[in-house]
Amino acid sequence: MLSHLRGTFCVLSAGVQRAWSSSSCLFMDPSSPGLVLQSQSTDVFQNLALEDWIDAHVDLQQRSILLLWRNRPAVVIGRHQNPWAECSLPAMRSAQVPVARRRSGGGTVYHDLGNLNLTFFASKKAYDRRRNLKVVTDALRRVRPQLDVQATDRLDILLNGQYKISGTASRLSRKSSYHHCTLLHSADRSAIATLLRPSCPGIRSNATPSVPSPVANLTDHAPSLQWEELLEAVVQQYSSEFGLTSASRCVDPADEVLFPGIGSMEAELCSWEWTFGKTPKFRVETQLELRDEQPVARCSAELQLEVKNGLVETCRVEVPAAWLPERLSASLAQALLGERFCPHRAAAALSTLLRCESGPLHGRLRNLCDVLVAAMG
Amino acid sequence: MAMRAALRCLSVNFSPRLPQLSSAAQVSATRLLCRSGAPRTLSTTSDQCTALKFTKKHEWVLVESGIGTVGISNYAQEALGDVVYCGLPEVGQKLEQLEEFGALESVKAASELYSPLTGEVTAINTELAENPGLVNKSCYADGWLIKMTIEKPEELDKLMDQPAYDKFIKSLEE
């Protein structure tokens, strides 16, 4: 169980924790060419905003930063991915697990408090993902020499040559870079299976796909490895690899004084426009199974839609004319145009149409609406 | 950082092992871009093609009849590695010089694209949706990214020409 987790995971150095009155104190301290930061927040949007903030505001030409963070349960998709293809939005709504789109590339991952995130910030010149991953594998081997951990060509870290315990993604921006990776200490693997599957059938997309891999937690193979022990090992290894002597520091990403403007970065990351609206254009092509109860009858119909910027751009609903007059299925399709690709929006748009149509076809029309809404994830 | 250590770095370390497109090859690429129908000689009048201009972010611009075609240089495509996705703007989007207008995702990272000029997007290369690798295979021709209007021609004058860009790359490798 996750009983070893504590409310905060700031590892205090020997000595007093300094209060940072402004970011310039924290980031311009000449005595520290490198810095290890630990986020106090477990909110995925606040932590992603903190990465954005550091990337945009800190001069990384002369220093490197390691940021350690973890999140309450969340699914994080890559910059150019399709959230409907990568995760089950209905299952996530039930479980109250948010989806976040990060700015780096790569595939989809599940985060919870048993997963450690490491972000290595550096100048573009100093960008070296293998060196960063070596920090992680060396740290693990130091605390548990029996662990067989290796970075692959894809820059995953595998345990026993088989199980993925870490995945990598990165971003190159104006002057700097960051490389971040996950590290599975004690995450809830059953959640991965439930949440990381498509929201609806028939998605055809050229968004960057995920490469699914069997995963394991470090604690499956090294049950005595404590969270704090892992953090300490990583911090020490980073310091020795990069020649730093400063201790790690806790930061609060909700602190606007320390990180001016971070609130609006967080707001952008939470927004529908970023999370869903940035999805590359995709099609949905699927068969709909229709039924009538009085008398009992069944029928198959075809749905084809194109979604651009998260909105329904084109929609065709092909229902045999004997089941429903073409004018009705055509007006359903029409009602969805321009709406967000979302079951709630679809239901609202279609309910207006349903109200206008009474008479013997109402039952079949309602069934078609229900089936259409269900096809929207 | 010692030169050796710098050379070991991935990605933005622009490996000198692979040869860059030679200047001669770049000039013929220019001719390829200028060709609108039957082959014709390269003209230097302002309403015809001008030579490639480069930004410090390793993008090139080629102007033809007042429209700039934008792509990334050979140096940049080598540094990026295999491009797997091109995130491009919409036609009609207005861009300021140096504004982020999209991103290229490669096996190495997601890299932002910065507009070389101020203007409006008139076309995007839709081939890249199915075939993002064109950016690597043909960065000066079929791998073009966007076309845009040129609101401030003086911005173009400040960009590097071929010899200046070659010199700039050399200075980065040192």
Automatic annotation (TrEMBL), chain A:
Residues annotated as domain BPL/LPL catalytic: 60-246
PROSITE patterns to which the protein is assigned, alphabetical: BPL_LPL_CATALYTIC
An annotated GO BP: protein lipoylation
InterPro entries associated with the record: aa-tRNA-synth_II/BPL/LPL, BPL_LPL_catalytic, LipoylTrfase_LipoateP_Ligase
One GO cellular component, as annotated: mitochondrion
GO function terms (MF aspect): lipoyltransferase activity
Pfam families in the record: LplA-B_cat
Protein's pathway: Protein modification; protein lipoylation via exogenous pathway; protein N(6)-(lipoyl)lysine from lipoate: step 2/2
Top-level taxon: Eukaryota
Family, similarity comment: Belongs to the LplA family.
Protein name from the UniProt record: BPL/LPL catalytic domain-containing protein
Species classification: Eukaryota, Metazoa, Chordata, Craniata, Vertebrata
From TrEMBL, chain B:
Alphabetized UniProt keyword annotations: Lipoyl, Mitochondrion, Transit peptide
Listed InterPro entries: 2-oxoA_DH_lipoyl-BS, Biotin_lipoyl, GCV_H, GCV_H/Fam206, GCV_H_sub, Single_hybrid_motif
GO biological process, one term: protein lipoylation
Residues recorded as bearing N6-lipoyllysine in the entry: 108
Subcellular location: Mitochondrion
Record-level GO cellular component terms: glycine cleavage complex; mitochondrion
Subunit structure and binding partners: The glycine cleavage system is composed of four proteins: P, T, L and H.
Main function: The glycine cleavage system catalyzes the degradation of glycine. The H protein (GCSH) shuttles the methylamine group of glycine from the P protein (GLDC) to the T protein (GCST). Has a pivotal role in the lipoylation of enzymes involved in cellular energetics such as the mitochondrial dihydrolipoyllysine-residue acetyltransferase component of pyruvate dehydrogenase complex (DLAT), and the mitochondrial dihydrolipoyllysine-residue succinyltransferase component of 2-oxoglutarate dehydrogenase complex (DLST).
Protein name: Glycine cleavage system H protein
Organism: Poecilia mexicana
